[in-house]
Amino acid sequence: MTNGQSPFSIPVTPSVSAPQRQRIQALIQQALTFQTRGQLHEAEQILLQVLAVDASEPDALQLMGLIAKRNGKLDLAEQLLRRSLVVNSRQPHVNYNLGNLLKDTGRPAEALPFYEKAILYKADYAEAYSNRAECLTTLAGVDAANARSLLETALPLYRRALQLQPDFVGARVGLAEAYLQLDEPQQAEEVLRAGLTRLPNDFYLNNSLGTALRRQQRFEEAAPHLKRAAERAPDRWQIWLNLGNTFLALGQMDDAIVCFKKVVVLDPANYAAQSALNQALWETGQHTQLLNSYEWAKERKPNDPELLKMAAEAYILFGRHEEAEANIAAVAALEPDAPALPRLRTTLLLAQQRVEEALEAARQGLVAAPDDQLLLHRVAESALRLNRPAEALEAAHRLDAVARDSQFAAAFQATAHRLLSQPDPRGLYDYDRFIQSIDLAPPAGYADLAAFHADLMTALDAQHVATHEPIEQTLRNGTQTRENLFTRVGVAPAIQALRDSILAATHRYIAALPDDPDHPFLRRKGQSLVWAGSWSARLRDQGYHTNHIHPEGWISGCYYVDMPDVVKDAEGKQGWITFGAFAQGTGATLPWERAIQPRPGLLVLFPSYMWHGTIPFHSEQTRTTVAFDIGGRT
Q1: Looking at 366, 397, 423, which one is the last position of a domain?
Q2: CB 73 within 8 A of CB 95
Q3: What Å distances lie between residue 153 and 135, 429, 447, 490, CA to CA?
């Protein structure tokens, strides 16, 4: 029997006598008992007897629908539940169950009216209130224009469910999530803590509160709740992932690695855990274990294309190209038309410096997916490296059209114009206008810059816990802090003071910029500012940053805290920040056009799309900076 086919033919039912009605009710109770025990086949056979006598018996139709759902026959389940409601639309439980089926099959908007009817016919139906609110919350996640209205409609429904059932954990967790989506974390925390006073060891409440605290970067407070959740539900990979990421933020790298390994055991193809595990192994110097988790996972899921894709991506990242190629070939054998294949092939070919082949692979991928942002990026990048700026410019314009405010699109356009030896018509790399160097005064409460930097260095030292640089970043020979330095709750006062000083200087920088609604940088004036990222980088001897841009930012910047003496050498320019250089492997290169000498207390602001890097330095002293990206939102 295929999904959606009826397992029985429904005859025209004559009027049912009183004895037959009594017999039907007895059979339904017997079927319900079998269903409760999980004996679905036995229950189904009894219900077929009922429907042979009365093909429109609503309870039998509903129970048959629930059995079909349990058996994965979702189309049939929907037909049966709807048929039951045709016979009697005033059944709250049937409306509720049909709402659940629609919600669970990704149709929350269709589910809403059935939950409304369930509530109409059963005013104290707590589960229907909660699930209706859940559908509204889901819709808010995909309808940005109406998100606030949908969430504000969901809130009283969740509250009503909790009024009816104060220990209704699902409703409490849903209410907290709605508050978080409304950017009201304090309300979410209050709701969850109220639940924990009643159910202190509940897994869901502890996990949700820990997650809510993590979102606010209150990692020290989050950890105990996540640990308690892990103790209560050690077989749930989600909690180990949350806990692992919390340990990472706290600098407890070995504990984080243990958690990520637990996730991989429970869910071998978990992208987030696999990626975080291997990057943590890299940063802690445990290089003999690198990528072993992917091989272990593939032994357990040998034909999982998603696992093979993520393994290929990781092998490219860590420079193991032959193994990456083997994983890509395995994906192609399983899914020859997988959209990820052109992206993986192009990325691998570029990593292997096979730029001509990479360009061709990206172009072939665009035939099937003409608006694929990564492939457009790869075409522009490859064409620049092959010194074909006209092709790069065309791809960059296409990228700009499909990804408004793409920092890479602007960077590629500016670079292409330079390779063409023609002025950039929009002046994207107008260094005099867009780069600003500012000496920040010591914050209030500090006698001088040295006293401020002493406190700041102490605070940053506590967060530089790795021994190696992040593999996916541009830093070489050094370390970088994790999480968003400036948005973390409870961060050291010196970091808070620096954040406030930088934000004030950035507002002055923006105010001085001209208005130009057609310029990729200037058109974003007037947006509210958000910290898209903030971190500290520490370079050691022969350390530097490769030439790069910041794709998540609008305005980027760097504040210099502690510099080696060699940066004072104006001729060698060791440790200086440079702008404009383009050099990506072999092929076309462009030298830097502007260099700035760093000194403690100096803040440099610039558009996030400007290529910038650091000249390597040779010194036993380290070079410590705080860098950041500021984004804008309307």
Answers
A1: 423
A2: no
A3: 11, 47, 53, 33
Does residue 491 share a domain with residue 376? no
Q: Is residue 347 part of a domain?
A: no
The string of pLDDT tens digits covering residues 95-145 is: 999 999 999 999 999 999 999 999 999 999 999 999 999 999 999 999 989
Buried-exposed string 204-218: b where 16+ CB fall within 10 A, e elsewhere: bbbbbbbbbbbebbb
Say if residue 415 is in the same domain as residue 497.
no
Cβ atoms of residues 435 and 512 within 8 Å: no
Q: Is there a domain that residue 573 lies in?
A: yes
Q: Angle at the Cα of 157 (from 156 to 160), degrees rounded to 5?
A: 85
pLDDT tens figures, 427-473: 999 999 999 999 999 999 999 999 999 999 999 999 898 888 888 88
Phi, psi (rounded to 5 degrees) for 622: -100, 165
User: Is pLDDT larger for residue 537 or for residue 588?
Assistant: 537
Question: Measuring CA to CA, which residue among 353, 405, 362, 403 is closest to residue 380?
Answer: 362
pLDDT tens column, 353-403: 999 999 999 999 999 999 999 999 999 999 999 999 999 999 999 999 999
Three-class secondary structure of residue 325 per DSSP: helix
CATH number at residue 627: 2.60.120.620
How far, CA to CA in Å, does 433 sit from each of 430, 555, 559, 578? 6, 13, 19, 16
How many CA atoms, within 13 angstroms, populate the side-chain half-sphere of residue 604? 24
Domain of 359 in residue numbering reads as: 353-423
Of 379, 404, 423, the domain-final residue: 423
- What is the band of 182 on the pLDDT scale with cuts at 50, 70, 90? very high
Specify whether 439 is located in the same domain as 552.
Answer: yes
My answer on whether 454 and 491 are in the same domain is yes
448 and 405 part of one domain:
no
**DSSP 8-state class, residue 589:** E
Domain count, the chain: 2
